[in-house]
Amino acid sequence: MDENTYNNYYWRNDKVRLRLWLPKDAEYNYLVDLDSEGMSLVHEEITLPPEKQVVDENGGSAKQNPAAPAFSIETLDGEYVGHIHFNYINERHGTFSIGMINIRSMRGKGYGEAAMRLLLDYAFNERRLHKFNAFCLDLNTASAGLMRKLGCKQEGLVRDVVFMNGAYHDQILFGMTENEYRVQEK
Question: Less CB within 10 Å around the terminal CB: N or C of the chain?
Answer without folding.
Answer: C
